[in-house]
Design goal:
Elements (H helix, E strand, L loop, with lengths): L2 H21 L5 E2 L1 H6 L5 E7 L6 E3 L3 E10 L5 E6 L12 E9 L2 E10 L8 H6 L7
Parallel strand pairs: 1-2, 5-7
Antiparallel strand pairs: 2-4, 2-6, 3-4, 4-5, 6-7
């Protein structure tokens, strides 16, 4: 074999190793039902806060304990336990991305990402006012 063929084979092998290493980082979002099927495994659950259920957070008693009920897009609910400070404006968030694992009857959350509501959602005139002016 020529040196160039060996170099090309090494580069191809390196590219395959890099691609395989990135496949472990691909993020998939789970529903409550699919997260329950993967009990004990780390998942990303996409849901929203159930405003009909009480949010349990007392910063004086324990600032590192937050408990609430999350509902996915299919209507399935699960209790979420988060051992950190309550994220600011969590009640206003449109969606929550909960990173953690299902343990028994609840979701043990390690991180919460908030999806903010659109500033144009309730005011269609604001959207029209922020449109760029197109001139001919």
């Amino acid at each position: 074999m020529k040196k160039t063929h060996v170099i090309i084979l090494v580069l191809i092998a390196a590219a395959i190793v890099v691609l395989i290493s990135y496949t472990g980082d691909l993020t998939t979002y789970e529903t409550v039902a699919s997260a329950r099927q993967k009990e004990g495994k780390f998942v990303n659950l996409i849901a929203k806060l159930d405003h009909t259920q009480p949010l349990e957070y007392d910063p004086v008693k324990n600032p590192n304990y937050l408990s609430f009920v999350a509902v996915d897009t299919l209507g399935n609910a699960i209790k979420v336990v988060y051992h950190s400070n309550k994220p600011t404006d969590m009640e206003k968030s449109e969606r929550l991305v909960l990173k953690g694992k299902v343990q028994g009857d609840h979701f043990e959350c390690k991180d919460i990402l908030l999806k903010c509501p659109s500033k144009y959602k309730d005011d269609p005139k604001a959207m029209q006012n922020n449109q760029p002016v197109v001139s001919n």
